[in-house]
């Protein structure tokens, strides 16, 4: 009985073995033996409808960057607060925030009765000068001849020199408020003076309106010389040791995130604030009229540059929180059709620069130098791969 059971079992094993060996295959030359959800295939016709571009990945110098925030600023000497000595009433101004100015341009007219008093005192001092000078010279001659006392001579001399100093002081006052002493000498008395722009620049803010009285210490407006704008960045303590003069800064405005501009580190602060940060200043590579002092910016400071494999940003796709690229597996014939195969490989993104991204493979055994990579229109392949999954295909 045992022998019979043994023979039956042996027969079954042999039948199964022969069946497996002789089982016909449905695979044809050039098809995949196993299903792989990361493999995408396109026909010649499908490929012709895309903008897919294949190429080798090259090494580029990609800098390691620190991301920081800051503002557009100007050196203190390029910020001018316009004031008028002795104050007055603002008679006229056409200035608005953002108005561009040239040096010497009239920016306001100011009226003050005190200006008339200065001119009157100046003319009076000029009138006295001729008499006091003549009296001084006469007393000097008489004193030499011992006709008058030294005391009388010294008094005449003192009166003359005091009046002369008064004339010089009044001339300085007149020039300070913008009145030419020569015009006053010629009889032109002005109660209104013009205020001129001391620099080429931009009006940042106007603080006073027409007809309002202001004191000497009051600021009429702020003007900025925008020809020497720079970026002012805040770098925190952990990254301070990486900063060097001459390093490249890439920055963009908060309201224009796609437009990058460049600057270069020229000054590193040496005072650590309470929030454990220091200030970094960078010179602009190129002037840009769209930049204004006080604008908020996002910036990257390139602290080192390393040669790495880098790929165009558009060659990278994102799916379920991970990043991928596609490599070309070549083409094959399937029936009468020519098929093009691509494999989706997971990568780890590195630093970005000028629309190129440094990367490494999630699988360290992958060798990018031996691959042909999809450099353009990778999203088409991602869409094809995920559509195929939803339809139940393996590739």
Automatic annotation (TrEMBL):
Belongs to the membrane fusion protein (MFP) (TC 8.A.1) family. This is Efflux RND transporter periplasmic adaptor subunit. Keywords: Transport. Residues 231-302 form the CusB-like beta-barrel domain. It comes from Mariniflexile litorale. One of its GO terms (cellular component) is cell envelope. One of its GO terms (biological process) is copper ion export. One of its GO terms (molecular function) is transmembrane transporter activity. PROSITE patterns: PROKAR_LIPOPROTEIN.
